[in-house]
Amino acid sequence: MARRTSRKQRLDSMLNLVSSPCFVVDADRRLVFANSGCEHLTGWVVGDLIGRRCELTSGTAAKEPESVTECLAPPQEALAGERLQVPRYFVHRKTGRSVARLVHFFPLSDDEGVLLVLGVVTDVPPTRTAGGSSIITEVHAELAALRHELRQRYGRESIISRAPQMRRVFDQIDIATHSRAIVHLTGEAGTGREHVARVVHYGSEFGQRPFVPLNCCELSIDELAGALRRLVETGWGETTGGATLQPGAIFLAEVDHLPRDQQARLAAFLSSPQGTAFRSRCRLMTSSVDSPQTLLDAERLTDELFYLITPLQIELPPLRSRLADLRLLGQSFVEACNRGSDRQVTGFSEDVWRQFETYNWPGNLAELREVVQQAHAACDGSIISTAHLPFQFRTGMDAQKLGPSPDAALEPLESLLARVEREHVLAALERARGSRAKAAKLLGISRPAFYRKLENYGLADDEKS
User: Fold this and answer.
1) How far lies 189's CA from each of 250, 262, 313, 361, 363, in Å?
2) N or C terminus: which one in the chain shows less Cβ crowding within 10 Å?
3) What is the distance, to the nearest Å, from the Cα of residue 24 to the centroid of all Cα atoms in its chain?
4) Which of 265-269, 284-288, 325-329 has the lowest mean pLDDT?
5) Between 3.30.420, 1.10.1760, 3.40.1350, 1.10.10, what CATH number should domain 413-456 receive?
6) Which helix or strand (DSSP H or E) is residue 144 part of?
């Protein structure tokens, strides 16, 4: 042990004489040394960084020490003894300027394995190729670069995308952030509608006050009426339990499930002088799966509410329409799992990417995040392989591969549709444990329409409300 300590001290002394940024990470990913070149590159005092874990994450704000340690994190291959060079993007703590650099990792080993990893940071050659870096580390670097670019343009690095379909979304977010207009977000479940609403809110002038989400599918009619009365119609000086309730944004998710009488009440309030005063201090945002025009045509939105919530609309595309983002999103979810975990996963095998790219992702970003989280937990190495993918994903892939069912004897269309619809109504009630509101949400229809179907099939008195 004394011999190892002496060797490390000699190494530290030599590296202190080098002007290029150099650092040393131990086998537990702890930063044990960094020279003055690292201080100049990052704006951080070395003493604030020593002892911190260098985890394979990206996108941390420059004011956090993890913004440096994630750039110094050796890939798992380096800790296994492989020399690598990886592009990384460093953000200066004080100036906020980001620069691309090439980080060379040199494992230092003895008979027991890798003890330390020496890192040397150099400029990126103008004609640099991938060199020793793998596709996985290139994706990591590209993700970091994209996050820095989006932070500079939008101030919100949490939305990861390079897909053309998202350019208009980013423009609309930018407009909404600098506006007081009501914002309506459209998109399939799992596309991140609430997340985008939060991005708009926290980047706006109302962002210092709370963001209050209300899901019109999950609350009963009485709960919705009470919540709207408290949040919208309460006087701003009124206190509850000693604290004044002054939200900066109210987000009505699945607004088409709001009963029509509540829609009318909300629209009347927003159009009144009191509503105008309310909107000067609080932003209303809404969402739905279907477009507002579709909802209006189906009589799931009142005319008055339709015209109030449609000045500024943001439509989020499904994941299957933005496959150019798939690798960046998957890598970002892996790195989110790495943060604070003893298990540090570098990325995915190409077999996994091929499966991901052929899957339809009906659950969109939410499903991808869940699949990655479960695969990360199951992974026993540095790379997620197909063996680590969860059972639900594999069964979803199998179901997607199935062709159409063989021809059967034709049943009269009217009776077939009625039978299938009745079975779906019963299945939805069973899954919702008798809750009609939740069952209607599962079927994608309004509660009044659901009640009519219960009556049509003689089920109105058989199920719980």
Assistant:
1) 19, 24, 17, 11, 7
2) N
3) 33
4) 265-269
5) 1.10.10
6) helix 135-154
Q: Residue 318: CA atoms inside 13 Å, Cβ hemisphere, count?
A: 13
CA distance 436 to 450: 8
- The secondary structure of residue 258, as a DSSP letter, is S
Strand partners, 90: 99
Sign of the C-alpha dihedral, residues 268, 272, 274, 275?
Answer: positive
Percent of the chain past pLDDT 90, that is, above it, reads 47
In what order do the strands lie in the sheet containing 113-123?
A: 31-34, 22-26, 113-123, 98-110, 84-91
- Answer whether residue 74 shows pLDDT above 80: yes
pLDDT band (50, 70, 90) for residue 464: very low
**Among 91-95, 120-124, 126-130, 367-371, whose mean pLDDT is lowest?**
126-130
Q: Are 182 and 204 in contact (CB under 8 A)?
A: no
CB of 82 within 8 A of CB of 71? Answer: no
Q: CA 439 to CA 200: how far, in whole Å?
A: 31
The domain defined by 2-154 folds into Beta-Lactamase (3.30.450)
Q: Is 136 exposed, middle or buried (0-12, 13-18, 19+ CB in 10 A)?
A: buried
320-401, CATH topology level? Helicase, Ruva Protein; domain 3 (1.10.8)
Please write the tens of the pLDDT for every residue from 15-51.
777 788 999 999 999 999 999 999 999 999 999 999 9
Residue 421 has pLDDT above 80, yes or no: yes
Whole-number Cα distances in Å, 237 to 233, 240, 244, 268, 269: 12, 10, 7, 22, 18
List, by residue range, all CATH 1.10.10 domains of the chain: 413-456
Q: Are 143 and 122 in contact (CB under 8 A)?
A: no
User: Given this structure, which CATH class describes domain 164-235+247-316?
Assistant: alpha beta
Distance of alpha carbon 177 from alpha carbon 268, whole angstroms: 25
Average pLDDT, the chain: 84
Least confident piece of the model among 133-137, 332-336, 461-465: 461-465
Name the segment(s) of the chain with CATH classification 3.30.450.20: 2-154
What is the C-alpha separation between 36 and 171, in angstroms, rounded? 41
Q: Is 324 helix (H, G, I), strand (E, B) or coil?
A: helix
Residue reference for tokens 């058989």: 462
Q: Where in the chain is the domain with CATH 1.10.8.60?
A: 320-401
